[in-house]
Amino acid sequence: MSIQAEAQPAVAFKPRRLGHANLFVGELERSMHFYNKIAGFEPVFREPHIPAGFLSNGNTHHDLGLIQIPKGKTVVGRDGHVQIPHGRGLEAGLNHFGWEMECERDLALAYKRAAAAGLEVHRKVDHQLSHSIYMFDPDGNLHEFYADMLDNWRTVFNSQEGPAITGNWDPDAGNWLSEGRYHIKFELRRVEDARVHTIRFTSAVLLTKNFDKMVQFYGETAGLKVVYRSKDGTYVSFAGPHANHGVDITLVKQDRAAKPTVHHYTYEVVSEKEIDAAERALAKDGIAIEKKIDGPLKRSIFVRDPDGMLCEFVAPRKLDFAVIEKADATERAYLL
Ligand SMILES: [Fe+2]
Questions:
Q1: In angstroms, what CA-CA distances link 96 with 21, 182, 197, 257, 289?
Q2: What span, in angstroms and rounded, lies between the C-alpha atoms of 22 and 66?
Q3: What's the 235 CA to ligand 1 centre distance in angstroms?
Q4: What is the rounded CA–CA span in Å between residue 126 and residue 149?
Q5: Which of 6, 134, 177, 266 could form a disulfide with 312 if both were Cys (CB 3.0 to 4.6 A apart)?
Q6: Domains of the chain
Q7: How do residues 84-127 score in pLDDT, each as one tens digit?
Q8: Who's near 173: CB < 8 A, 6+ residues apart?
Q9: What does DSSP say about strands 310-316 and 249-253: parallel, antiparallel, or unpaired?
Q10: d(CA 238, ligand 1 centre) in Å
Q11: Spatial contact of 139 and 214, defined as CB atoms under 8 Å apart
Q12: pTM over 0.85
């Protein structure tokens, strides 16, 4: 390591991979139904006081957290911990992305580097399942860096409703767990009567207005590796070392006047055959498939959730950035 690098250490949380998406939704029951019966995720827990619901097929404690938009009210968890401050979550869309850390020790040390660098930390949280640090990126998207704390998350997320589980965490308290509690092997659950049979949430594509600052945040603060940068400089893809399919998140440069948003959320399906079955089942239900891709990179279909968020259900083939580079610029966002 150079002297300069030692003098100015990057914050670099260095998560293993993108673990979950947490979404603000207009009507919780409508969205729980969509992500369960259409997208094929099993509900694992509910927090009626928010109200919120969580879904997973086993990959991690939740691939999706859904929170009904609080419409300005403050949501408080255990010990007076403010879960959603007044004024946040005014409309449906991304609440936060959850990034899976190797262990609590790595999380606490990254937090200390962030604090020493003068970066603003939004929340320090004990979710019981995990300990978490929340930070905003330059576009205002919220990110949760979390370390799993339990041998078996199903002891807490167990299909039941429960009281508030979220409270305060003091990352300076020490005694950090230095072993990973995430699950590499898991028993895959299947929602038999769902239209699509999914394994997990894998990745997302963001349309960003503060492109250069965003690239810096994901590289230096999050500590993710750049795995693709388009020759025209308008696309950058990042991955942690255990990204589910080689890419965790892609940033797409757009006009600075445009509103930053998530282009789509990607969910991996069990097999390519499941895409055929899903197409037939969705057609029977009259659910529109907005786009289909059947190419060297993947077979996938795009469907809107009840709030208009674009979901991609994908069976990956071979990740080849040369194919993406050759694609029409307007198509690239769908390919990543
Ligand atoms: Fe989360």
A1: 6, 19, 24, 22, 26
A2: 6
A3: 26
A4: 10
A5: 266
A6: 9-154 (3.10.180.10), 198-335 (3.10.180.10)
A7: 888 788 899 999 999 999 999 999 999 999 999 999 999 999 98
A8: none
A9: unpaired
A10: 19
A11: yes
A12: yes
CA of 193 to the centre of ligand 1 (A): 27
Q: Which among 249, 252, 204 has a CA at the least distance from the CA of 227?
A: 249
Rounded distance from Cα 80 to ligand 1 centre (Å) = 18
Determine the distance separating the centroid of ligand 1 and the alpha carbon of 277, expressed in angstroms: 31
CA-angle at 145, arms to 3 and 237, nearest 5°: 75
- CA of 308 relative to ligand 1 center, distance in Å: 21
Q: Cα–Cα distances in Å, from 33 out to 27, 40, 195, 315, 324?
A: 10, 9, 11, 23, 34
Other Cβ atoms closer than 10 A to 64: 26
Token pair in block for residue 234: 């308008």
Whether residue 127 contacts residue 199, with contact meaning beta carbons closer than 8 Å, is answered with: no
d(CA 336, CA 316): 11
pLDDT digits (tens, 9 = 90+) for 295-327: 999 999 999 999 999 999 999 999 999 999 999
Q: How confident is the model at residue 9 (pLDDT cuts 50, 70, 90)?
A: low
38, 48, 170, 288 from 196: Cα distances, Å: 6, 27, 40, 14
Listing DSSP states for 73-108 in one string gives --EE-GGG-EEE-TT---SSEEEEEEEE-S-HHHHH
Question: How many Å lie between the centroid of ligand 1 and the Cα of residue 166?
Answer: 11
Provide the β-strand partners of residue 114: none
Q: How far is the CA of 96 from the centre of ligand 1 (A)?
A: 6
The Å distance, Cα 231 to ligand 1 centre, comes to 34
Give the type of residue at 223. Answer: G
For the CA atoms of 28, 32, 38, 41, the dihedral, rounded to the nearest 10 degrees, stands at 150
* b/e 228-240 (16+ beta carbons within 10 angstroms → b): bbbeeeebbbbbb
